[in-house]
């Protein structure tokens, strides 16, 4: 925002004040100020008269330098899910407390943003970047570092480099919690719809599932494991694969995300399978809509907003020279609702 001073020195050492211009022209001080700052609610005659007097007096308006806006860029593979919106809410909640803008981009895939985004961010020079899932090459890391742009990998798809900043949930414990809950209810044939095999969080949840089964000496059945993609259509396809054979159906399904659990609900509806009477379903994430599904979804909560706020805070602390923990893992917890119940005896 441009602002003008109330007075200005001229070459002979005298000091011209706006009040002098007001007396000279016969206009009020407020009208002179409006003319000086380009306001539109004065007459053209007044503006011309005041401008002429300002010029003749040698008054030169000083412009206060604009404060550069601080921005954090967030890059998603896609921004079409409730999950992504939850992440963005957490980031904005933190940044608005520090008068920092947020710019959102859709770019690349789960492994790496597009090179065009990487090149563009160097020109835009935000105070930092949050990469959802994806990561940078060694060369790009060096470029970011040389330009003073810190970045945080949010829910990394692979193992972050030792020097990378990252934030994620405890996915292995989440997988254990979900499976133990179903086992406690008497379920032994527990299907799981994972996320993509190449993603760290997906593998960790599957490992947690396997560990919980091993605690009960229940062997893993490959036919009860199907790969999804963390989307509702992926959950639907995975559920149909698990449920179509009526004789070998699982009695419970651990969906690797709440969005996939929505797909399980639709598959069960089409197959006339009741939740939770015939099939217990547990999700992962605890997105905002999970509590409003019918029945309300039992799920594992990963604190998405807290994770997102932490990622933003890591960038802010880095730019302000504070020491930070480079890798942050936040706890997961069970949220019990209505989509799971004790197995019925006839099952």
Automatic annotation (TrEMBL):
Database matches in CDD domains: HTH_LacI, PBP1_CatR-like
The UniProt GO MF terms for this protein read:
DNA-binding transcription factor activity; transcription cis-regulatory region binding
Q: Known SUPFAM superfamilies for this protein?
A: lambda repressor-like DNA-binding domains (SSF47413), Periplasmic binding protein-like I (SSF53822)
Any Pfam family:
Peripla_BP_3
Ranges of residues in domain HTH lacI-type: 16-70
Record's InterPro entries? HTH_LacI, LacI/GalR-like_sensor, Lambda_DNA-bd_dom_sf, Peripla_BP_I
Keyword line: DNA-binding, Transcription, Transcription regulation
Superkingdom as given in the UniProt entry: Bacteria
Which PANTHER family does this UniProt record tie to the protein?
A: LACI-RELATED TRANSCRIPTIONAL REPRESSOR, LACTOSE OPERON REPRESSOR
Q: What is this protein called?
A: Periplasmic-binding protein/LacI transcriptional regulator
